[in-house]
Design goal:
This protein is of the alpha+beta class. Helices cover 50% and strands 16% of the residues. It has 25 helices and 22 strands. The strands form three sheets. It has a six-stranded mixed beta barrel. Strands 13-14-20-16-19-17 form a six-stranded mixed barrel. A four-stranded antiparallel sheet has the order 12-21-11-22. Strand 17 and strand 18 (592-593) form a beta hairpin. The relative contact order is 0.11.
Length: 807
């Protein structure tokens, strides 16, 4: 019953001080709310994974350091020889074009999976059946399993969908099943199709977006499985050096594979950052409670004089603090809810393929309750202990001023402020290096002007049944180029096999006149197929020689353009024009020699195969008429804002081939946002740092303002004895800047160590970047100076006569 009485008294006490209660609840709601939000998203990424993957699930991914690249023959070897797994499956991301009864073609995301994949992840269709090994046989009838969302949106949840044949990528395909609601694997997809094991699939060099999924046996550790797979991979590399020599096959959990190898460090850092914010809020509240202690000293002294024991006083004060933090926890729940929703929307916009379970479940609720109670105890314990040790006679005689606000109380407040400043500078420095890294990428010279460029491509490439000859494919791209150039506001149009900064096709090569090299030792170079006018469209330049033209036809002399980087590496100080080289087809194996190519031009460098935009690599450009592939991107430079031409482009594209689905058009800068992680997480840390800076500044202001209030008589006496306004200003600033200086020194040292956690995320920026540390220090000093100046200004305006009468 005494605890209930303590709670009632705590409620009455808080209601009597609405200003303090409101400020405290707001600070606690912010600190607890962002902690709960980060815990929720960290729990989703690090532990929950997909909606259908249970906590502590034993599913793992086998890939080349998260970059897919596991061939089907390698998968068969792993499945047959690895003893650490209950089963394995191989997965391949593809796209499918569905044509409805009106003839309208639409693109959908699909995934090719081997038989048994759904059983491996512990799911089964709610309608129909799963894939069987017979579905993987070449020549077997084409079948598909639909996702619940796709079944609902495209077919209106028609139960008669089973057995229906739809036209999928020009192939009649029977629907054989529908998966449960919420199931999406391995990412957000609309449907699944069986992996048909053709002769092309069985090529060991075929590693395009393949990865292997496995389930560990009970009792088998993650390290054991990783070691076993590494042993098998090493044996494959020795047996097949042409295809496997550069692979680094490893076993990864969900977070490592889908988010990145440093996901634990990243989200751990986020968790630490919001923990710092909460600690700053606790330090602020502890200081506010110490300031309130002066006004409550007489009350506590009377209770002690009437027989209340020390534990009784401490319990009462801790009940008040915990009640206050629980009120903050209620507000924090709503902040966390909206914070998680904002995070989920941001992730959906930039990584729509990634489906995570962000539900604020019982685990999150338990965490919220725990930190709410713990926070109340944390910020309430120091003031409670301080008040429980009151000197009764002094407190009753002077109202507590002498008993509470002595040197020990000021020292404790200074220590708390020092801690706030330390934590604030650590957060500012961490956010600073991440933002600096983003700016390094964003402002890097790509060798092209990305503004006013629209890009798009054909979904799945040109259909081979209608574009079976090089002449038909060339004709399509020529008509496409002519149609788009006729759109008002378009300056030039070109085609390319890949976009700038994207990975182009690496092929082995050799130079004419050089000694022959063993196939396994041949150097490789990025190769692109482009149309005439590509460099003009990209605002690049032909440095020497000529551009491709309409005379570079399939049966004409084979030619190539190299970039400056290639020319400088291969022929330093020499004229590359007229020199010859040849490429070897077969991607990895590189065993089929192509024709000898004559270098007719040298182009300026354009970033290729480097999403961080920091290094120009060697590139060889081939004329698309001599390559005549069935897939290419179109790029159009416009004289007007390109967003206004999207609808016109779509109309023109339909006129070229109304049956051919087109992906786009998009603004080129939107397609190059590979570095959004740096910006996204940098902004998150910046928000945390801004909140920490605000709380630390408010805390410093509160301490200095309280100190000025307590020292009013002293300041008045100093001014009466001749102290100037500058002397008073210096007195106040000395008290505020000393904790800042100590906190700054400790915080900078700590940031040098903690920022190393971000090393893998940083581009061209050191974790101890001097400019960032100087700027963040300056920001903190300015914020602290403002926090000191406001109470200092009030002290400078004191009337000595009034101040000397102050009680």
């Amino acid at each position: 019953m005494s605890l209930v009485a303590d709670v009632r008294l705590a409620f009455r006490t808080l209601l009597k001080n609405p200003g303090f209660t409101t400020i405290a609840v707001i600070m606690l709601a912010v600190g607890i709310g962002i902690n709960a939000a980060v815990f929720t998203v960290s729990d989703a990424v690090l532990f929950k994974g997909f909606h259908f993957v249970k906590r502590n699930d034993r599913l793992v991914y086998i890939s080349d350091n998260g970059n897919c690249c596991v061939s089907y023959p390698d998968f068969e070897t792993y499945r047959a020889e690895a003893k650490s797994f209950q089963g394995m499956a191989i997965v391949h991301g593809v796209a499918r074009i569905l044509t409805d009864q009106s003839g309208f073609a639409e693109r959908y995301d699909a995934t090719e999976v081997s038989a048994g994949t759904f059983q491996l992840v512990g799911q089964r269709p709610i309608l129909g059946r799963d894939f069987t090994p017979a579905d993987q046989t070449p020549g077997a009838p084409a079948v598909a399993v639909l996702s619940y969302g796709f079944w609902q949106s495209r077919f209106g949840k028609d139960p008669a969908i089973l057995g229906r044949t739809v036209r999928m990528s020009n192939t009649p395909t029977m629907v054989i099943g529908v998966m449960p609601q919420g199931f999406s694997f391995p990412q957000k997809v609309d449907l699944w199709v069986p992996l048909v094991v053709t002769s092309e699939v069985r090529k060991r060099e075929n590693r395009d977006t393949w990865f292997v999924l496995g389930r560990l046996k009970d009792g088998v550790s993650f390290e054991t499985a990783r070691a076993e797979i590494a042993t098998i991979a090493a044996r494959l590399a020795a047996a097949y050096p042409l295809t496997n020599r550069d692979l680094h096959i490893t076993v990864q959990n969900f977070g490592e594979f889908m988010i990145g190898p440093n996901v634990a460090a990243l989200y751990g850092s986020m968790w630490g950052a919001v923990g710092f914010v909460l600690l700053i809020a606790c330090a602020n509240l502890a200081n506010l409670e110490l300031a309130r202690a002066v006004g409550r000293a007489r009350e506590i002294s009377l209770r002690i004089a009437l027989g209340a024991g020390r534990w009784r006083i401490i319990r009462q004060l801790l009940v008040e603090s915990v009640l206050l933090s629980c009120l903050g926890g209620v507000g924090g729940w709503w902040i966390a809810k909206w914070g998680v929703r904002a995070y989920q929307l941001a992730m959906a916009q930039k990584a729509s393929w990634l489906i995570l379970d962000y539900t604020m479940d019982r685990t999150v609720l338990a965490y919220l309750i725990a930190i709410s109670i713990g926070t109340g105890i944390l910020f309430g314990i120091a003031p409670a202990l301080r008040l429980s040790r009151l000197h009764i006679n002094s407190a009753l005689k002077d109202g507590g001023h002498g008993a509470i606000s002595g040197a020990r109380g000021r020292h404790l407040s200074s220590v708390l402020v020092t801690g706030e400043m330390t934590l604030a500078i650590v957060l500012l420095a961490g956010a600073g290096v991440m933002i600096r890294s983003y700016l390094k990428i964003h402002t890097a010279n790509m060798g092209v002007k990305v503004a006013n460029l629209l890009v798009g491509t054909q979904l799945g490439g040109l259909p081979p049944d209608r574009y079976s000859t090089p002449e038909s494919r060339i004709s399509y791209f020529d008509r496409l180029k002519a149609q788009l150039e006729a759109v008002p506001g378009v300056e030039s149009v070109a085609t390319a096999s890949v976009l700038p900064s994207w990975r182009s096709r690496p092929l082995p090569y050799e130079l004419a006149g050089e000694p022959p090299v063993e196939p396994a030792r041949r150097p490789q170079v990025e190769v692109m197929a482009i149309s005439p006018g590509y460099f003009r469209t990209m605002s690049a330049a032909i440095v020497s020689g000529r551009d491709f033209n309409n005379a570079d036809i399939p049966h004409g002399p084979p030619v190539a353009i190299v970039n400056q980087k290639f020319a400088n590496v291969l022929w330093p100080g020499k004229d590359p024009l007229g020199r010859r080289l040849r490429l070897f087809e077969g991607w990895i194996t590189g065993t089929a020699p192509g024709p000898w190519l004559t270098v007719v031009g040298v182009a300026s460098n354009i970033i290729q195969n480097d999403v961080n935009r920091q290094e120009f690599g060697p590139v060889i450009y081939l004329p698309y008429r001599q390559l005549a592939e069935g897939s290419a991107w179109f790029l159009a430079r416009t004289r007007i804002p390109p967003a206004g031409l999207v609808a016109a482009f779509r109309r023109e594209l339909r006129t070229v081939d109304p049956d051919l689905p087109i992906y786009g058009p998009f603004l080129l800068q939107d397609r190059l946002e590979f570095f959004w992680n740096n910006r996204f997480y940098g902004l998150i840390f910046l928000v945390f740092a801004a909140v920490a800076l605000l709380l630390a500044s408010v805390g410093l202001y509160a301490v200095i303002a309280h100190s000025v209030s307590q020292r009013t008589r002293e300041i008045g006496l100093r001014m009466a004895m001749g102290a100037s306004a500058g002397n008073v200003l210096l007195l106040v600033f000395r008290q505020g800047m000393l904790p800042l200086a100590i906190g700054l020194a400790i915080g900078l040292a700590a940031s040098l160590a903690l920022n190393r956690l971000f090393t893998s995320l940083l581009v061209q920026v050191s974790p101890s970047d001097p400019l960032t540390l100087m700027l963040t220090s300056a920001v903190l000093v300015v914020a602290a100076a403002i926090g000191c100046f406001i109470p200092a200004r009030r002290a400078m305006r004191l009337d000595p006569a009034v101040a000397l009468r102050h009680d």
